[in-house]
UniProtKB/TrEMBL annotation:
Ranges in coiled-coil conformation: none
All copies of domain Exoribonuclease phosphorolytic, residue ranges: 3-102, 106-170
Keyword rRNA processing annotated: yes
Organism for this UniProt entry: Rhipidura dahli
Name of the protein in question: Exosome complex component RRP46
Keywords (A to Z) from UniProt: Cytoplasm, DNA-binding, Exosome, Nucleus, Phosphoprotein, rRNA processing
CDD domains xrefs: RNase_PH_RRP46 (cd11372)
Similarity remark: Belongs to the RNase PH family.
Molecular-function annotations in GO: DNA binding; RNA binding
Lineage: Eukaryota, Metazoa, Chordata, Craniata, Vertebrata
Amino acid sequence: ALSPGDTSVLAGLYGPAEAKVSKELPDRAALEVLLRPKVGLPGVMERSREQLLRQTCEAVVLGALHPRTAITLVLQVLSDAGSLLSCCLNAACMALLDAGLPLATLFCGVTCALQPDGTILLDPSARQEQEARAILTFAIASSERKVLMANTKGSCSVEEMQQCLAAAQRAANTIFQFYRDSVRRCYSK
């Protein structure tokens, strides 16, 4: 479970396990990401986020070490008070890390809201997201702070996007320190 602020996501990882013949990949593990909303059935928005999450996870999971298997990551939204995609990215990385899957690098999600006056807010609330001119979410790798995924909603200039990316890369240091502290606490018991 990951709860930054009032947004909360529960992550469960299953596998590597035997894959169905129709989903089996001969050279790597088949990764499936399921995003479950707080209430109701998944819609278009959840499917879109599932695809972004799957592509980000596939970029770091060393699936070639587990060919012909299936890995399923289930993310259950418990509450959404803003910055949901970045919370899902962070919960996914923590689940992959906790399960002991081989990863090329860790990653984290950071959401930036670009206010109408041009100021950048990190980890915006739902209300701040509604008032924002643009919302940018980045998945940043721990190695060299490379961008694995970028998702934008709204309009912004190239310069503003670069400023948001720089702020997200700085914020990633705090998230990676949180990962280290969490793993240290978990395995020092």
